[in-house]
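Here is a typical protein record:
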Amino acid sequence: MKILSAKQLSEADKYSIQKENITSVELMERAATLVFEEIHKRLQGAPIPIKIFCGIGNNGGDGLVIARHLIQHGYEVTTYVVNYSDKRSEDFLTNYEKLKDITNNWPQLIKNEDSFPDIQTGDFVIDAMFGIGLNRPLENWVGKLVEYINASQAFTLAIDMPSGLFTDKGPEKNSAIIEADYTLSFQAPKLVFFLPETMDYIGELQLLDIGLDREFLAKLESDIYLIGKEEAASLYKTRKKNSHKGDYGRVLIAGGSYGKMGSVQLTAKAALRAGTGLCSLYIPKIGYQIIQTALPEAMVITDNEEDLITSIPADFDADVFCFGMGAGTDRKTVTAFRQFLSEVKTPILVDADGINILSENKDMLDLLPEGSVLTPHPGELKRLIGEWKDNFEKLEKTRELSEKYKVIVVIKGAHTFIVNGKEVFINTSGNPGMATAGSGDVLSGIITSLMGQQYNNVAAAVLGVYLHGASGDIAVRELGYESLLAGDIADHIGRAIMELFNGESIDKR
C-alpha cells in the first residue's frame, strides 16, 4: 500500500469528482457517511453524549455530515463550531445549512476560552477541527481548546487525522495536538501516522476507502510503502519437494564475547527457525559449550581468543555473513572486522556492536559490500547519521546514508522502517511486548536466513521484519506483553510463516 502526500490525495479528490461527475459536497457526504456507519456499528444507539468539534474548513464539513446522520438516528449530539476565522469553505457552509434544516439545536459557536463546553470523562468526542491541510501550529485559545479536550480524558475519535498534526513535518515544541484514541482516516495512510514522535497521537488507526478513482491512485508515484500481511505473503518463496539443506543457505554468524553469548545464540536460533539449511557460528572460545548445548542444530567454530573475537574467516563457504551481536568494541575486534570487510565479497548483515564499530570508524562504511543490511535501533542510528530535528529529517538522513553506501538500513522501532535508497517500507506487525532484550538479535537472524535462502536482500529485509513482528504477535496471544521473551519470538517464526497463508497446507501454496 502506497503512502501518499496531502497534495496527492487532494489531486485524487479533484480527479474523482471530475471523472464521476459529482460535486465535492457529494464526495464529502460519501466519506463522512462511512465514518457515521463505523460509529453507528459500534455504538448501536447507546445513550452516550456525543460532542462534535468542527472546524470551518472541509474537515469541519465532514463533522457536520456526521452530526446530521447521528442526530437522525436518535443519538444525543451536541455540535460545536470552532470559530477561529470569518472564512468558511463552501462545503462547510452547505452542510451547515443541511444540519440546521433537520434540528432545532443549531451548532454552538466556540470563539474563546469562556465558551468552552463542559466535557465529562464518559463523553464521546469527535475531532473534526483540522485535517491534512494544516501547516502551522494551533495557537491562542484554539490550542488551549485542544489541550482542554485532551485533559478531559473523554474518548476521542479523530476524523482523517488528529487536529494539530502536520502531514509533512514534525510537530513544533509544545504544539497542541489532539491525542486521539481512534483515528478514522480516508483512503490512504499518511507517513506521520507511523513516525515515533507522532504515532501516539493517532491511537488505533482504521482506513476508510471513500471510492477515489483506483486507476488514478495506481498511477500516483510514491517511494514509501506500508507492509502488511498481503504484501509480506507476496514475497514468500515456496520450496521444491526435491531439495536439500544446501538449497536453503549456508550462513555464518560471528559475534559474542564474555557474558554476551546469548545474543548470537538467539540470532542463530532465529535463522534456523526461519529456514536456514546450514548455520555456523564463529565465536570466542568461552561460548563453545554454551552454543553446543543450547543449539545442537548449529555448527560452531571458535576464535583463538578466549573472551572475544580477533578474526573473522571471510573465506568461509557461506552464502551470507552476519556480524555484531554481543561482539563488543575491543580494539582487536575492530581490527578483525576491518580486515574481514576488506576481504568479503558478498553482502553481509551488520547489527549491534558491528554498527557501533562502523559509527566510530566511519571510513569502514566504504568497505561494506553493496546490498549489505544494517539493523540499528534509534540510538545506534544516531551514532551513524548524527542528530536530527524531527523524524522526517531522520528519514532523509537515513536515505542519504543508504544511497551513498548502497546499503539497506532497517530502523528498528514500533513501526520498523526498511530504507533502500529513496524507497522506504513501513512495517505494521509487532507489539509493545517485543521491547525486550534480544528481540533485535532475533530479527537479525531472520533477515540473515532469508538472505542466505537467496531472497533479494530488500525482500529479505521487508519479509524478515514482518515475520519478526508477526511472530511476536502470535506469542503475546499466549504469554501477554510483559512475559514475552526474545526466545519466544524465535519459537513462533514457523507459526508466523504459516499464518501468511491463513493456515493453508504448505503443499497448496
